[in-house]
Amino acid sequence: MALLGFFRRKPPIRRIKELADFIDEQSAYLTQKGIYDYSQARSGPFAKTFLNEPAFLAALDKSRWQAYPLGLAMIGELVEGVLRPQAGNDAGLILDELTDVVLSVFDRYPVPAPLGKEAWLDIRGELALKLDRIRMHPPKRAIDIPESYSKRYFNLMPFHKDMLTADEPTARGYLRIQLANLHEELVKRIDAPGIVELLRKGGDDDRG
To answer: Which of 73, 70, 79 is nearest to 32 (CA)?
Structure first.
């Protein structure tokens, strides 16, 4: 049955909730896969033992919650770049509505214990600011979106900075490849004119 599922086409994105789910799932996948893959590679032959240490698992949990909003920012910008050509003179309005969708995804989750309420709210405000700044430049190619995020993302890896090697370009390359693939998937799945029209009207009521 799993093999049959492999060949099953992913569903189209025609509603705001479907778009929100895409943003949520891909943001989590983008950031967590990189963290786990790097942690395994950095731990080498001791990965199985090291990745089960309570102290490291706690650091890993903190890292993934800190990185998830960076994923939301990158995937949000990716989506905006696909929608903007359909938005015409309403590009600013569409970005405002899309920002609300991304923030509603952020708000699906309770405050992560490793971060605390104050830090989580600060991160939310920073995410909103990052999304708002998208309007200040033309849509970026998917592979260019990580340029302003990769260093910060790499610095969130759950290792002491003295243990980190010069792997930030590798992290950037990983993000670029993943976003290029996600762009291709998004273009195939999304009904861009329909989503823009829903956003223009304030969205539908099932995004949560």
So the answer is: 70
The whole model's pTM is what?
0.87
| pLDDT, tens digit, 9 for 90 and up, residues 79-94 | 999 999 999 999 999 9
| pLDDT exceeds 50 at position 3 | no
**Alpha carbon distance, N-terminus to C-terminus of the chain:** 30
C-beta separation of 191 from 12 below 8 A: yes
| Nearest in space to 167 (alpha carbons), one of 177, 180, 156 | 156
CA 75-13-104 angle, to 5 degrees, is 50
CA–CA dist 123, 172 (Å, integer): 21
Q: Give 90's DSSP letter.
A: G
